[in-house]
Amino acid sequence: MKVSVYDTHVVKKNGLTMHFDIIVPDDQTHEKVLQFGLEYLKRVGQEGQPLTTKECRFCHMEEASEDIEKAIKESGYYIYEMEGCH
């Protein structure tokens, strides 16, 4: 499965920055990617933090691993957490 990767940096409620990728099928719109990002922020207790095209930018396309493809088939997207997400 070909996927699009969106590099995302969000300032948390405590002022620190979260860095994560939102990975979606390559046919998703940027608006849908932002909706997925807002879902994720709500799930991790960061609801209400700004998430716009400024914080979430298209990075590249790649072939998804089996694990990522499975997650996308279940929920429509995959979050790859990198820094400050916990």
UniProtKB/TrEMBL annotation:
Domain of life (superkingdom): Bacteria
Pfam families (UniProt xref): DUF2024
InterPro entries (UniProt xref): DUF2024, NE1680-like_sf
Protein name: DUF2024 domain-containing protein
Species this chain originates from: Kuenenia stuttgartiensis
